[in-house]
Amino acid sequence: MLRKFSHIIIILLFTPSVQAQTEKLIYDQLTIPITSEHYHIPVGLCEDYPEETTTMEIIKNDFEFLKKHDVTFLRISFGWDAIESKQGTYDWLFWDDYVNKAVDEYGLTLVPYICYIPMWNSTGANDTVFYWNYPPKDFKAYGDFVKALVTRYKDKIKTWELWNEPDIWIYWQGSKKDFAKFLKIGAEAVREADPEAKIVFPGIAYDPYFVMEMFRDFKLSEYFDIVNMHNYYETWHRHPIEDIVQYVNEVQDVIWRYGNNQAVWMAEVGYSTFRKGARVSDSYSAFYEYEHTPEYQAKHLFKTLTLVASTGNVDAVAWYEIKDLPPSENVIGDNDNNRYLGVAYPDHKPKPAAKSLQFFNSLFSGKYKSINDKVEVDRPVKSETEVQSFQTESGDVIVVSWLKTRVPGRTSGQKDGLAKDNRKETVTINIPFELKGKITEYDELGNQKNFTSVEKSDGKTVIKDLTLSGGGLSIIKIMK
Known about the structure:
Blueprint: H1 27-31, E1 43-46, H2 56-68, E2 73-75, E3 77-79, H3 80-83, H4 93-105, E4 109-110, E5 113-115, H5 139-153, E6 159-162, H6 176-193, E7 198-204, H7 208-216, E8 226-229, H8 244-258, E9 263-269, H9 294-311, E10 316-320, H10 352-363, E11 368-370, E12 376-378, E13 385-392, E14 397-403, E15 424-431, E16 439-442, E17 448-449, E18 454-457, E19 460-469, E20 474-478
Parallel strand pairs: 1-2, 1-10, 2-4, 3-5, 5-6, 6-7, 7-8, 8-9, 9-10
Antiparallel strand pairs: 11-13, 12-15, 13-14, 14-20, 15-19, 16-17, 16-20, 18-19
């Protein structure tokens, strides 16, 4: 979450409270670490709901958008500062209606995080902009709030993430010692209110070392069932998206060494459609003309989900976010990219990324496994190709290939961000078992292409002379 808002009460149309049938939700798919050879990673979305600008129409349109695009879980936030703006007085009006509608009417699995210190309890109350990211004066009051929140919604919500991006100052201006105390109190409150709930370590912005310190130095692993991590490579980070595999594995290494076999989420990940000339952010500049366009966002989304799926170390992913922001909404941090992260425009008109997300979820709807260790790729010297291969539980093979967009060390060419990507590379992909079924090539939107260059013999299948073009994406499925 990248926005922050003051509290103003709004009245939504009342939805009668119905005992939630949580067994119909997908918490079991999100919270159990992968242990089998084949796995499936659910992919959802994120959204923020500022009380002063959110209407019932916006909420309904969001939920209809999710329904239309087959998205079944949503990451949201509960703001302590809004619900308890006055000490000891809780205002549940907005969230009672929201949770009832999301869970009971639309069957959405909600995965919220709890954030934002109210001004009356902030040690930084004199900071009128960022008072909410300072440690509380009274830590017990935080525990009381968490207990009240979880108790109220425990029949409808079964995961609780405690805070957001604490490894960067814009979300936490206290010490690590204070934050460890804060987390412990919050986790104990969740356990007391709902022993069945899963507790999520707050999504790190980028630093696995922060998780290590909390687990190793402050012994907090036992309090958490899930570790969350965020990623915005090629938007707010200079790293190429292909480095996301190393990032996931670094977090998994921390859990292996200092944790207790927690599940792993990447429940914020995104890519903006903002750029001004070559500049995207302080950390990233575009090289090619297609970067940070709505069309390329769809490709980047599919690449990101493919790479994350290849690790076998992530149990759920939530793309940030449903829709772009209107000019009237405030943001935390970057006032440009934060407004253009949606898979839809502010009026809910889908960007291409919405269709890409839906196609990924359809193509990878069953269980699968990475077979990168079995597939051999013949490619040129100094190749800039990326090839990811999967086998479904039923035996079909999916191969996703592209030319890397961000290549560190590239120092030639124009600097205005408008370079034409004329690169082409031809690869041959050797699959070590014979596949006899239908062959289909897709783009990131699920559009089919003609592809016949496949040889099947001697117990293997060879995708011959696959030509990859800069800025493109090849998705080939071969039925068993």
